[in-house]
Amino acid sequence: MDDKVVIKNYTVDKVVGQVFPSLANAVVYKIEGVRDAAADRLDKLLGNVYEIPPNEDTRQPIVFELGDVAPQVVSGDLPRTLYGTPIMMPVSFGGKKYNVFAPDGSLKSVDYKTYQLPATTFCEFSRDKRIAETPINGGVGSIRELYGFSDWEITIRGLLITETKQSGMMACDVFPEDEIRNLQAWENIAASVDVSGLMFNILKIRSIDIKKITIGVIEDAPNVIPFQISAASAQAQELYVKTNKLFKRK
Length: 250
Description:
By secondary structure, the chain is α+β, with helices and mostly antiparallel strands. The protein contains five helices and 16 strands.
């Protein structure tokens, strides 16, 4: 059985569950009615295709049925996939001039264009509180002092797939070499990267430091490349230096 046939047998749940076990039971795959756009896009690429009527008004609000949870209505001017389905929570890196290391170790300025991460991207956020605990001698418990908050630790996961159209359907029979190079180019930046997205905006994260990038493979699906980015929120700190004025004695 050739690779293309094997790839066509994959479903969204199986691919994501195999690559990212922690996301296998995410609520996105339990949505009834209209499916999440990222999962929908991946379904098309992997062969579980259904046609979208050409006269469908993609500007209409989308209703998500979440079982016992109140239906969620999403509307507005959302980015679209190749097939016109909306990307519900897009994430993008901001384009501007960034410093990168040249082969000789020096820094050079390179102009980057805004890069939208794949629609199959998932983001997770966590942050610790810096708390000092002092045990109470001869007593029970401890005294806790809150000193501040750590940076947000961010994990970005997704799948790199080359989008092509064959006979009106999307296929994944092309290795995503360009997509890998584009993603790796952002990891080369020697500075904080501007970022935007719904959750990033809610958490007031304007830029991130990319600490690590991991690119893997999926068994029997060589043209679907999983990636994971480990990053931390970056926030400009303003330091005020107080100086003592010296007065001469009269």
